[in-house]
Amino acid sequence: MNTPQDWLWCLAIIGVATAGKLGGSAVAARLTGMQWRESLQLGALMNTRGLMELIALNIGYDMGILSQRIFTMLVIMALVTTIMTGPLLSLLATREEKEDSLGQEPLLSES
Question: Relative to the CA of 15, which of 32, 74, 77, 108 has its CA 20 to 30 Å away?
Answer without folding.
Answer: 32
